[in-house]
Amino acid sequence: MRRRDFISLGGTAILPLMVIPRLAGAQQAQQVRRIGVLMSSAADDSEAKVRTAIFQQVLQERGWTMGRNLQLDYRWGPNIADRLRRDATELAALSPDVIVASTGTAAQIAQEVSPNVSVVFVGIIDAVAGGRVESLARPGGNATGFISLEYGLSGKFLELLKEVAPRMTRVAVLRDPTTPGGSGQYGALQAASPSYRVELTPINVRDPGAIERGMAAFAREPNGGLIVQASALATFHRETIIALAARYRLPAVYANSTFVSSGGLISYGATQVELWRGAADYVDRILRGTKPADLPVQTPTKYELAINLKTAKALGLEIPPTLITRADEVIE
Q: By three-state DSSP, how is residue 269 classified?
């Protein structure tokens, strides 16, 4: 081989060895992390949009920018197992780093479909009884997150109903008995009801037809009130529930302010925006190397009372001034 050819070949061979490390470093700096989000809401749900906007805002504050180093893949729809399994399977095929689940059912299916992917849940009622974690302090697996309700609040719902409707002796309870959270909430209400001298009537939340039949039957007798337990199904069907409560003139207490902003009477529950802020914080920490098992499940730190005075007027109810003073939000 001629010396000139050897030098040319050598230069060509050496060049990649000098360039490859720099290219690898550039690629690593531009790595895009992927987050799948399983939402149990319609894509045009205004309240859900607020929560996801806060979620994205906090991630951006932590240095994650869509299109540069972050990709968010959303799936929207009702909290139905078949739909969630299909959507979770689609998300798993995208190889996400984390899946965010907005309900207990969504979290369960995400864990089943993607057992090696970190899961952050938002709004679960009972993470331990539902099998999502071993304990709140030590989740012990690939999932952690934020619960939205403590069972002890059940007595508060009855107290609020008695304040706005002192003559009430009967309470219809809309619940989802297919979840541990639904059964747990109803059990807590049963334990508290003797103190308020009310009789409970459970109505299962399955579909609008079942809800309407149950509420129509309950409303045939006087002195009734309504408690809508926290559940993804109730939130998804909230327009139907609120309309029926108005039709049958039932004072109602709900588990989150989404119902009150949609026309419901009173709500008392965790501040949903804070739960989604927390979820973004946990996603950020997981992307930076923390394991879900090392992040304790968080309980709500702030609850809010919301009252819709317009709805109260339509029902012929006089809301006590002391209750209005305690409210975090009053809609007039």
A: strand
